[in-house]
Amino acid sequence: MPQKIYRTGIYARLSKEDAEGIESNSIQSQRAICLAYIESHEDLELVDTYIDDGRTGSNTDRPGFQKMLKDMRSGRIDCAVSKDLSRFSRNYIDAGNYLEKIFPAMGIRYIAINDNYDSMAPGAGSDTITLPFKVLVNDIYCRDISIKIRTSLEVKRKKGEYVGGFTPYGYKKAPQDKNRLLVDENAAEVVTMIFGMFKDGFPILKIAGRLNASGIPTPMDYKRMQGVNFQTAFRTRERSEWEYVTIKRILSNIVYTGVLVQGKRGTPNHKVRSVRPKEETDWIQVENAHEPIISCTDFEAVAELMRRDTHCVSGSDRHSLFSGFLFCGDCQASMTRKTQKRGDKQYIYYNCGGNKRTHQCSPHSFSEAKLMDIVFHAIHDQIEVVLHLDEVLRFIDTLPQRDRWVFSYEAQMTRLDEEIQRYKNLELGLYENSVDGIINKTEYTDFRENYRGQIEEKQAALQRLKREQQDAAAMGSQNRAWVQVFAQHENVQELDRRLLVALVDKVFIYEDKRVEIAFRYRDEFDRAWEIAKNYADRPIPAAG
User: Fold this and answer.
1) How far apart are CA 383 and CA 490, in angstroms?
2) Do 287 and 386 belong together in one domain?
């Protein structure tokens, strides 16, 4: 009969690092090994088992480990058994501190079975020489595994593979490939509805209210309905509700355009578990990573409107037609909507908001009815211009000499590069010529200024050629998606908010009653117009 019976706790741990490795140290196998060891030793009596599943060994901030320490301090157990040292800790500093200081001070016996270590065995003190090296090896192993995992995740992110735990609302993981996102048709329908309602003029809070009234499950509840074990500390009701922040998060998430942005947060190293935001320059963004739910044009239009000051009409649940679009052409302030009754009739007009706030602009106003007519006809005319321009560009696409012109860009840029380098070499040789007395100081200065002027001129010409080449390539029919936005509204019959969101950026009203409309895709239109004019000015050589 042994002199003392040790009240023993089994400690088992399985980390994500182990799951990625060749050897799978399952919790069940660890527990079985420890239990068999305890049963074969009469001086050990099992009290409890402490488990950390999916926890790293790089630190001791683990629920199971902390519970074991608590029981040690209370006297419930005075012995700990683990399969090996790596299960206990892979941090050589933490492990050494516990094995050499804390456990001896507390009178705790520790046994690492596979490492043949027992702190109470005769000669255990000699193991203190080799033990730190074993722990150090475990620490190095943990670091190497962490690096491998980080590198693997980085590669996957750059390839456009999804590495997150929970998919964005509207998507699901492919059954055969957990790193590929597929459209979840049911949730995607709700996402499309949210964007559509916002384009129709519904404020974010009104959208949330309508979704709640319709009984549509929130992203959180929808995940649970799909069997996803999604937990959050913010849940206060059995059934969650759509809120402002939820709707705004969906409207602001670029993932719905097919773009995957990952790596926004991370840990500094394998020993620090606190997750911190990364610099935006370190984010990994991949376009066309998955099927989009929302077009880029709609997403950009919605994003711009959310940045603007928009208000609902009194007594209405949505924004007025021009809310967020009207600006004073003189002071750039937003125009404010006013309603005036004259008898049985109601008149709507817009005043300069800058005049009301600062009195630094004139109180000019404009009738809404007249403005609607002007804007509608302007949009109609712009659609015709864009479609005609597209026809011209499509004709240019068919010209065989166009390819030869595009190809000639390469030859011209090569020649300019050579000339730039030649003038740089000449400038470098000036100093030697000056030192050798071949040229005097005045000549040196004149030559240098001339060479530098030539270099700047050639560099500017090179940049112009590069832009022209890019424009020529970008104006191909396959790259004119913005034209299709206008084409979709070719037969428009009336002015509504969706039409404004799709085609109009801003409308400016001046004191002299001028109305100026800034359409969306101005840069694309200007580039296309320049390309069309350039080709119109060039003689088309005869075929053959």
Assistant:
1) 6
2) no
If asked whether residues 514 and 391 sit together in one domain, one would say yes
Find tokens 């050897």 and name the residue.
23
Let me know whether 509 and 380 are in one domain: yes
The identity of residue 82, as a single letter, is S
State whether the Cα torsion 247-251-257-258 is positive or negative. negative
Whether the per-residue pLDDT at 24 is higher than 50: the answer is no
Radius of gyration for the chain, computed over Cα atoms and rounded to the nearest angstrom: 36
Contacts of 421 (CB under 8 A, 6+ apart): none
115, amino acid identity: D
Residue type, position 283, single letter? W
| pTM, full prediction | 0.60
437 Ramachandran zone, left/alpha/beta (phi>0; psi -120 to 50): left
**DSSP summary character for residue 57:** S
Distant-in-sequence contacts of 390-393, Cβ < 8 A, 24+ apart: 390/480, 390/483, 390/487, 392/532, 393/475, 393/477, 393/480, 393/528, 393/531, 393/532
- Residue 10: CATH number of its domain: 3.40.50.1390
Output DSSP code: residue 60: S
Q: Rounded mean pLDDT of 230-251?
A: 75
For residue 335, give the H/E element and its range: strand 335-342
Q: 192: buried, middle or exposed (CB in 10 Å: 19+, 13-18, 0-12)?
A: middle
Tokens read off for 385: 């211009």
Work out how many domains the chain is built from and give that number: 4
The model's pLDDT over 105-153, given as tens digits with 9 standing for 90+, comes to 899 999 988 888 888 876 655 455 555 555 555 565 556 666 666 677 7
Claim to verify: residue 261 and residue 118 sit in the same structural domain: no
Q: Where are the alpha helices (DSSP H) in 352-399?
A: 353-358, 368-397
Which secondary-structure segment (H or E) carries 31?
Answer: helix 27-39
**CATH number, domain with residue 189:** 3.90.1750
> Phi and psi at residue 160, in whole multiples of 5°?
85, 20
